[in-house]
Amino acid sequence: MIPGEIVFGEGDIEINPGVPRLELEIVNTGDRPV
Question: Could you please report the per-residue DSSP string of 6-27?
């Protein structure tokens, strides 16, 4: 292992499995980009 190396396990990684998901649409109405 190399210092700072991240070794992932097999398969997909899920964050907070089983928790309901929320999708938001964000609109910037300001005069500057976000």
Answer: ----SS---SSTTSPP------
